Amino acid sequence: MEPIISDSVRRQTGRRQIYRYIYDSPQPMTAMEIAEGLSFAPVDVADSLAGLAADGMVVQDDTGAYVLEPRGRVAAGLCMLDDRAQLVAIDMRGTELGSRELPVPFSHTPAYYEMIAQCLEEFLDDCGLDRDRLLGLGIAMPAIMDQTEGKLVISPTLELQDVLLEEIYCHFSRYPVFIENTPNASGYAERWANGVQTNAVYLSLDRGVGGAILLGNEHYMGDHGRGGEFGHMRLVPNGRPCLCGRKGCVEAYCSTSRLSDDLGLTLEEFFDRLYGGDEQAAAVWKEYQGHLVDALVSLRTCFDCDIILGGALSPYLEELLPELRWEVGEKTLFSGEDFFLYLDHFGSRSACTGTALRFIDDFLLTY
Ligand SMILES: [Zn+2]
Q: What pTM did the predictor assign?
């Protein structure tokens, strides 16, 4: 016996297909073109289009053809780092509608979360966002999460261990909320932006160092959701102490703190000095680059794929990229000719954008 599909389910499925068809089309489409393209009855298409238009998901242009309304739904992203927080709002295309940097040091206290929640509301107001259209709030934090147990396992950067995610969720419960690790969110953003079909490894260079493993269209997380924690691979036996309590980790050498906090500078000031020919900055960078190249050679050797550099450092690396790429190619056992090292698409806001994009992607699948 054929499964029974109710009319409302059939209508919803048809509407979703039509929405996706318009979403994927670079040109405005007439109702007839949509009916022909999807082999739907014109009357059903007209019915779905009326519903989509009433829901604010599509609009008609001057000729009566249908186009996507990018602001039909929106999503927000929040990234909480040790020295600052970031907010981003995006539309259905992933286009940024606004962003904000909050220079507030992290603290795992209700007062901190309430203050951030208040800033979020002000930010959404300033962006002119209709809350009814807000799909949800993605939150990214530099921490290993256990989603099954609903727990933040450890974050050396934020000095947190074994925290129930509910303790954070509850302050943002006005919206659907999802919390994840920053490099995973950045990797997700990269996959979205480039439609990555090939394999790539993402290395996030911020005060904390982390990563993500993108296998084709899949995001490899490991058996326990901890895959890609490149920041705590051993780089120098018995080396510098790391915030995780061990010694010689990649993060101890490749944290942006080595270029900023250690010298009492901001990253911007450091790179102004470096590009201005300052000798001390050049010496510090040379040491940093050496360690970064070692880490990249290990990643290249393990994964044999492209590497994407992200995090707070990435906006400053454009000029240095050819040399980094060359050096990694030289030091890797196999040929460097087919090796590509590139900077992430969303720059220093990639995690914030990526975690918001999850709501957009989910909506596209379930609307
Ligand atoms: Zn470590």
A: 0.84
